[in-house]
Amino acid sequence: MNNTLMKPMGIANAGDEMFQMIEQNVSSQLIGQKELVRSMMICLLCDGHLLIEGLPGLAKTTAAKTFASAFEGEFMRIQFTPDLLPSDLIGTDIFLQEQGRFEFRKGPLFNHIVLADEINRAPAKVQSALLEAMGEKQISIGLERHELPDLFMVMATQNPIEQEGTYRLPEAQLDRFLLHVNVGYPSHNEELQIIELDEKRHQPTSADKPLPHINQEAIFAARQRVKQTYIDEKLKHYIVSLINATREPQKYSDKLASWLHVGASPRATLGVVNVAKAIAYLEGDDYVTPSHIQEAVPNVLRHRIVEAFEAEAEGISRDQIIRHLLEVVALP
Question: What global pTM score does this model have?
């Protein structure tokens, strides 16, 4: 069982050709990142947020910026640093001396697509400033609440935790991300294509073709169609069983019980349902199948479970735990 969403991206209906157009255009500029492009598409369709993890130089930031350029709306990149303050994200009240009153000045979070670059380089206080925005689509300043746009998506990049000068993201914040995608090194042929693409971009006669813009009304309409994708009651029970197995692993496998310390929250259950529907939609299916669920589970659970000391001592990764989870929980 693959631990990532690796199937070729399809298209749900003839009326949804815009998503195929986005995938083709973005993928043409991001060699070897088809899984990441698909994950960004899924988060957009599910009204969720995406955490992208990988070593420096793997085009995480470029992928987010290229993807955002395909949509109608405001894009903002925030470089997270150790000296960043919460007010640098959400904004602050400014006193207008001539008028004798305070006025709220919006921060960069008040944009449609926000790239939180190297999010784990800022301390926990700054990272927690995203919690309300990501969960409630609003910002609270004092006694006032300020609504964020209806189309609001956070794409955060981070380097591995082992890198110097990084901070571990709070568990509550990790749970707000719908998907957690690992970005690896490109293959030999893909890296050759990257060289060729870079050479073309630096040619005097070359000019990047602008990506087509998709309006927000079309995105909201597609989200409604994703929600209407049918999922059988037996598959709902299967999803709940998968999540319960992370909380009570001793009922399923002694090995799983020794590897898991903390299980997934109910938000993970909803995440698997919604992501499975989005996968079915993108592949042109009118209903969810077990394979859609099994593809959705790894990226939904990767950041929501905590391995036990025994797993760390044995060098067992979270992806290995999830693969075993899918093996021991029976299909309906």
Answer: 0.86
